[in-house]
Specification:
Length: about 130
């Protein structure tokens, strides 16, 4: 189930970033984790720039965020409760046939949440909102 965008600033950012976006809504499986999360990929005007992810944590607990792709896992950082994490995607995880997904695990344990699987190219921005359970 997708959740509404929470703040006016986020709505404005989504309106500017999503014009020709691939929208992935809802829960993604993978290891049995459940989420109420949405993920959007949008094309950046600067196609030569490194792809990046923006993770918005709408939960009351901090989350460790990892990027999975091509048989690799890369720790991106910890996003505090009700905060946003921004990170570049390592080039080693990119490729025309490489799907990636994000995994967020609550600090102190708990079931992880997963974004949908997407393909990223240079200039892409993946925005994922982790919504409350």
């Amino acid at each position: 189930m997708s959740a509404p965008v929470r703040s006016a600033a986020t709505r404005v950012a989504a309106a500017l970033l999503v014009p020709a976006a691939l929208v992935l809504a809802g829960c993604a499986s993978g290891g049995g984790g459940s989420t109420g999360a949405t993920a959007d990929v949008s094309r950046n005007a600067v196609a030569d720039s490194a792809p990046m992810v923006r993770v918005i944590n709408d939960r009351q607990t901090p989350m460790d965020v990892r990027l999975e792709g091509g048989g690799q896992t890369k720790f991106l950082g910890t996003v505090a409760a009700f905060d946003t994490l921004r990170a570049n995607v390592p080039e080693t995880l990119l490729g025309t046939s490489r799907e990636i997904q994000l995994r967020a695990t609550p600090l102190g344990g708990g079931r992880p949440s997963y974004s949908g699987r997407v393909y990223l190219r240079p200039g892409d921005v993946l925005e994922w909102t982790i919504t409350p359970l």
